[in-house]
Amino acid sequence: MLSRSLLLGATAALVAALPQGIDFDAVDSVPTPSVLGAPLAATIQSQVPSYSPSAAAQSAAAAVPTDPISSSTDDDSSDSKRSLTARKACDPQKAGAAPVTSPDTASAFLANANYTTIQANAPVPQGYQIVFQNLQGATQQNGYLGYYTLSSYDTVKCQQYCDKASSCQAFNVYIERDPSVEPGTGCDNPPSTVNYKCSLYGLPVSNATATNTGQWRANFQVVITASNGYVKNAPPPSYTDFTGPTEFGGAINAPIKNGQSSYIGVKVFPGPYDPGQCAAACEAQTQYDHDHPRSDGTYDPCNFFNSYILSKNNSPIGTYCSFYTQAWGKSYAVNTGQYDSNGIYYSVSSSYGYTLSPQDPGVVSSS
Ligand SMILES: *[C@@H]1O[C@H](CO)[C@@H](O)[C@H](O)[C@H]1NC(C)=O
Ligand SMILES: *[C@@H]1O[C@H](CO)[C@@H](O)[C@H](O)[C@H]1NC(C)=O
């Protein structure tokens, strides 16, 4: 059977200028998680993040024998999916900490300058940058980790929750107009209660995904305002057996040497940005190839990987890993993004290189 990596290798030889351009098929086969953000008008006060990098790495490594690194995985680790408590019409909901707008209508809420002032007075936490401000939509995108209800518009508290959660990269703080009782027969447009919300993401947020503008519940309108996005300025961790991360300005575009491509293939993981999945897949692939060498005793070791966040039209997809038999430096990290044939723009951010140490020679010892 002609493997996908062989196919990619053949394409690479023909298109030498971009040997390992973004593999759109691998990206498109990644499923969109069913939960993209905090639930609206929820009875629960929080969803505590549960993402585990070590579990994700284990599953990335375990997938290699049946799903080698030349193709993508569909590891949808969205165990943040939780059933919300069933509610009966007119059941009281927990009161929010934010001031209710007078008059108590959705349009007055959206026009209330008091909320603009509240977000404007919130500090940008150390180590983070503000990437959007005072929008009227909550973030909904890949990499959702969980959320908290706050007792004030407390960006520092939300940052502390983010720093405590594994793989948290970004957060969204916003003000939500919620019903004070469950809307339904007998109370179809109840008075509002107003909540401060903090939602956490393992992928950077941007204005492009601050798109959840609310919903109708019976005749009550849930709406969002004063929505601010913050992104962490920190490199990903280092990993055992690898040197790095080495910061790159784009994705590696390695040359063909003596007709040989050092590019082995790709894996794309949905969910938080977690290069540990690349590291685990890289080592598992080397182990597998070592155990299944060519007749001359050689195999393609995974000696280097490039990890980055891939976004599709500015909405992040997850962790993109490309794997190589040799290390490449910053001067080859030139692919910052590309269009597919349908005009969809795929962009590269948070690109880092990790080099196996010591390097694997790719030869089974004869002893
Ligand atoms: C804004 O805050 C002031 C002072 O608390 C209050 O009097 C006013 O009603 C608020 N505006 C709205 C639209 O709720
Ligand atoms: C996001 O902000 C950028 C820069 O400020 C702007 O060009 C772009 O149109 C905005 N996108 C959306 C979806 O609002």
UniProtKB/TrEMBL annotation:
- Which intervals of the chain are annotated as region Disordered? 62-101
Cleavable signal peptide? 1-17
Q: Tell me which UniProt keywords the record has, alphabetically.
A: Signal
- What domain of life is recorded for the organism? Eukaryota
Keyword Signal on this protein? Answer: yes
Q: Which PANTHER family match?
A: APPLE DOMAIN-CONTAINING PROTEIN, CHROMOSOME 15, WHOLE GENOME SHOTGUN SEQUENCE
This protein is called what? Apple domain-containing protein
* Protein's organism: Zasmidium cellare ATCC 36951
